[in-house]
From TrEMBL, chain A:
The lineage of its organism: Bacteria, Pseudomonadati, Bacteroidota, Cytophagia, Cytophagales. This is Copper-translocating P-type ATPase. Residues 6-72 form the HMA domain. Pfam families: E1-E2_ATPase (PF00122), HMA (PF00403), Hydrolase (PF00702). It is a multi-pass membrane protein. Belongs to the cation transport ATPase (P-type) (TC 3.A.3) family. Type IB subfamily. It comes from the Bacteria.
TrEMBL record, chain B:
The keyword Metal-binding does not apply. It comes from the Bacteria. The keyword Membrane applies. The chain crosses the membrane at residues 6-25. Residues 16-124 form the EfeO-type cupredoxin-like domain. This is Cupredoxin domain-containing protein. The lineage of its organism: Bacteria, Pseudomonadati, Bacteroidota, Cytophagia, Cytophagales.
């Protein structure tokens, strides 16, 4: 006998990503006495079913703590929304703090600057005691260093201890050098004057650099939160509660974490579907745009799947829960996007190599700059010139721009893709999609719907279609054969009068028979009619041959022992296919089709959608070979399939695109999964990849050029020719702007919209 | 060349040599993972201006659990990336964040901060 279980809901603390949730789940499931544990990352809740004699809330808590997370004791009515608001509040607080640090630095720099200018004005110089002025400036600069800039120094020091150097190292050394020199000039000016040097101070430089760098950081932080906005939006889509039908029949609202497999959930118009399942009764139109990018509502009837987070538009329905928590479509999309955002693009390799040695190299260049200026400049100006150029080199160098160039673009673009139903596995897939020059389409399920539809309904001489159709539909309505379903769909679309059929009998491999209005009706292939001894008149047979020549499947209809009609059934081309293929060709891609059909059918479909090259009579096991053949021609091939028996071809292609949500196998093999069953998704994927890689290239180009031009100019390379020197303050402004420009350029991808024909 | 120039030149070159040696050639702190009773290889890593330890040795085929404790607020270290494992994780300040992965092939896999400035490596044997 199954022991009675108790259910406990725990608030989990410290989960930062979807895989943390699965880790907590594993740890809980391993605890003795636990029968089921579901952890929801978005709401940070764990729901555990356990046997009270073997486990207690305390032992469950211990399991969570052992996994490295915490259990928060809080009033049960704190909603997930409130908690995410709390996290946002903490982030906002950090942002406020940064802004305050910037405010202090900027405010003081605005006072320090004009005071420093006094030195350039001889009339003022005579009235003001230089010594006092310097002490005043020192006092004003101290808070800029100690409060606003403190993090740069602590971070540089911590890094130094780890033999690591980062951007803060450059800023700390640069501003530190300027400040210490000024400090010496303030406290012991005699040391300088004795050597014939002006005891100059650089407090304005120090304060301004810190203010500008902080400004850059403020702008950067603001932009950065936008790069990961897509994940937050996706997670926010999840429903918080579900209306579950209890065995007694009453409907109860329960938190989403408590919904279990097999529960029946009610969804009313205007409500969100709570989780994934299959409709049991009722029908409705659902808005699935959030998952598939398809803007038109999708009609659903009993036995159709529904997905959590989609929106119910018109009718009420009940569905049986088939997936909860991390198994749902939404959770998988979130995981896929998260994974993609953590991946590295091959294009980034050079930038990665450079940034690994960047900071120490810049420090070396700065030291050499100092030495050269000190050795080569005139005696009386050599120290200030050496110092100013040393600082300028350190400050202008911007490793951030290099580091941000690729990942920010990848983050924005994978999020954008998900919004349009294009799920990108990783950054490498995106890069491959960019390089593609040939698109190979598996005809069935991509160009065509992949399900049969009635294309012709022919009545024999002396017969009437309007009279035949209701009779045919009455018989086929009782059949479960896919061809019969196609006939029923056709009859429903034609609004045929419903009739009743009796004595239905399916004849394996041939067709079906039944009686309608007391007349015997046969529907099936020619063998079915032949075996019943029914003759097909030559005129009708001729029409049948015509349909067969078009590679259609022909169903013969006999009523009361006489052949009276034909039904032509074929897989039909999707409405959007031709336009999408035209668009792909306009993008400069060669579109090739592959099908198991005979050459005539292949030629006909190819011509219908505007494809010039195709492979016909391709056996399922040869699909990957065709991909190889195209690759052997030196092409970079994108393979598009619906995932049914084309996983090897998807894997063989340079980039595989699995269509229509795809099977799990196809999603494994595909670099890109298209949620929408529509070739338009292929266009979106390719266009998105092109825009993204273009953006990355711009970013990398800018970051490299900026540093390779900026550093020599700051070192004073142009001085001998043009007499140009770069003020460290200008260097700071350039550096602050460079990383923000790269980020802003990446954020432009948020404006991506797929071109519609 | 006067004395000051000679001193500055020599000091400068010595500093250059020090920077190159210190950042590129000096020995790194290495740690091997400790296997827990459940067979998970566990390593604690402190994040403060860098990763300590920054070379982590693990065995192939056994799950690895890295506990990153971020002991600073500096924004440089707010993310950790394992590009070879498609992992990008936010590290909240003064909190421990777990990173789980399964090393299924031997080699040296880098992990870095969001901008690639702080570096460490996972050595799979």
């Amino acid at each position: 006998m199954e022991p009675t279980t108790k259910t406990e809901t725990l608030d989990i603390e410290g989960m930062t990503c979807a895989s943390c949730a699965s880790f907590v789940e594993k740890s809980l499931s391993r605890t003795p006495g636990v029968q089921r544990a579901v952890v929801n990352f978005a709401t940070e809740k764990a729901t555990v079913d356990y046997v009270p004699s073997q486990a207690t809330p305390a032992s469950l808590k211990e399991a969570v703590v052992n996994a490295g997370y915490g259990v928060t004791e809080r009033p049960p009515d704190t909603s997930a929304a409130e908690r995410s608001a709390e996290i946002d509040r903490q982030k906002a607080l950090a942002y406020q703090k940064l802004k305050r640090r910037f405010g202090v630095a900027a405010g003081l720099a605005l006072v320090i600057m004009p005071l420093s200018m006094l030195m350039l004005w001889p009339a003022a110089m005579e009235r003001v005691n230089m010594q006092w002025l310097n002490y005043g400036l020192l006092l004003l600069t101290l808070p800029v260093l100690g409060y606003s800039g403190r993090e740069f120094y602590s971070s540089a020091w911590n890094g130094f201890k780890h033999r690591a150097a980062n951007m803060d190292t450059l800023i700390a050394v640069g501003t530190g050098a300027a400040f210490l020199y000024s400090l010496a000039a303030t406290v012991v000016p005699g040391f300088f004057t004795r050597r014939g040097l002006m005891p100059e101070v650089y407090y304005d430089t120090t304060a301004t650099i810190i203010a500008l760098i902080l400004l850059g950081k403020v702008l950067e932080l603001r932009a950065k939160t936008q790069t990961s906005a897509a994940i937050r939006t996706l997670m926010g889509l999840q429903a918080k509660t579900a209306r579950v039908v209890r065995p007694g029949g009453q409907e109860v609202d329960v938190p989403i974490e408590q919904v279990q497999l097999g529960d029946v959930v009610v969804v009313r118009p205007g409500e969100k579907v709570a989780t994934d399942g299959i409709i049991e009764e009722g029908h409705s139109a659902l808005d699935e745009a959030m998952l598939t990018g398809e803007s038109l509502p999708v009609e659903k009837k009993p036995s159709d799947p529904v997905f959590g987070a989609t929106l119910n538009k018109t009718g009420s329905f009940r569905f049986r829960v088939t997936k909860v928590g991390a198994d749902t479509m939404l959770a998988q999309i979130v995981k896929l996007v998260e994974d993609a955002q953590g991946s590295r693009a091959p294009i980034q390799r050079l930038a990665d190599k450079v940034s690994a040695i960047f900071v120490p190299t810049v420090v070396v260049i700065a030291i050499l700059t100092f030495v050269l200026w000190f050795d080569l400049a005139p005696l009386e100006t050599r120290l200030p010139l050496a110092l100013v150029n040393f600082v300028a080199v350190l400050i202008i160098a911007c490793p951030c721009a290099l580091g941000l160039a690729t990942p920010t673009a990848i983050m924005v673009s994978t999020g954008k893709g998900a919004e349009h139903g294009v799920l990108i596995r990783n950054a490498e897939s995106l890069e491959k999609a960019y390089q593609v020059n040939t698109v190979l389409l598996d005809k069935t399920g991509t160009i065509t719907r992949g399900e049969p539809a009635v294309t012709d309904f022919v009545a024999a001489d002396g017969q009437n279609v309007g009279h035949l159709l209701p009779i045919v539909a009455a018989v086929e309505r009782q059949s479960e054969h896919p061809l019969a379903e196609a006939v029923v769909r056709y009859a429903d679309a034609q609004q045929a009068t419903p009739l009743a059929a009796t004595g239905f009998r399916a004849v394996e491999g041939k067709g079906a028979s039944a009686a309608v209005d007391g007349q015997a009706v046969l529907i099936g292939n020619s063998r079915l009619l032949a075996e019943a001894g029914i003759n097909i008149l030559p005129a009708l047979q001729q029409q049948a041959d015509g349909l067969l020549a078009q590679a259609k499947t022909v169903l013969y209809v006999a009523v009361a022992g006489q052949a009276v009609g034909l039904i032509g059934v074929a897989d039909t081309v999707r409405d959007t296919s031709a336009a999408a293929i035209k668009r792909l060709q306009a993008l400069g891609l060669e579109v090739v089709m592959m099908t198991g059909d005979n050459p005539q059918t292949a030629a006909q479909v190819a011509q219908q959608v505007g494809i010039k090259r195709y492979f016909a009579e391709v056996l399922p096991q040869d699909k990957a070979g065709k991909v190889k053949a195209l690759q052997a021609e030196g092409r970079i091939v994108a393979m598009v399939g619906d995932g049914i028996n084309d996983a090897p071809a998807l894997a063989q292609a340079d980039i595989g695109l699995a269509m229509g949500g795809g099977t799990d196998v196809a999603m494994e093999a595909a670099g890109i999964t298209l949620m929408r069953s529509d070739l338009q998704g292929v266009v979106t994927a390719i266009e998105l990849s092109r825009q993204t890689i273009r953006t990355i290239k711009q970013n990398l180009f800018f970051a490299f050029i900026y540093n390779t031009l900026g550093i020599p100019v700051a070192a004073g390379l142009l001085y001998p020719v043009f007499g140009w020197l770069l003020s460290p303050m200008l260097a700071a402004a350039a550096m602050a702007l460079s990383s923000v420009s790269v980020l802003t350029n990446s954020l432009r991808l948020r404006g991506f919209t797929p071109l519609k024909n | 060349m006067d004395t000051a120039e000679i001193i500055v030149t020599l000091t400068g070159l010595a500093l250059v040599a020090f920077v190159v040696w210190y950042f590129f050639f000096s020995a790194r702190q290495t740690a091997s993972a400790v296997s827990s009773s459940s067979g998970v290889q566990e390593v604690d890593i402190t994040v403060k201006g860098g990763y300590s330890p920054d070379v982590i040795e693990v065995e192939r085929g056994k799950p690895v659990q890295l506990s990153f404790y971020r002991d600073e607020e500096n924004s440089c270290s707010e993310e950790v990336l394992f590009p070879d494992f498609s992992i990008r994780r936010d590290l909240p300040a003064f909190k421990t964040t777990l990173v789980e992965l399964l090393p299924d092939k031997p080699g040296r896999f880098e992990f870095t901060c969001g901008m690639g400035m702080l570096r460490g490596s996972l050595v799979v044997k």
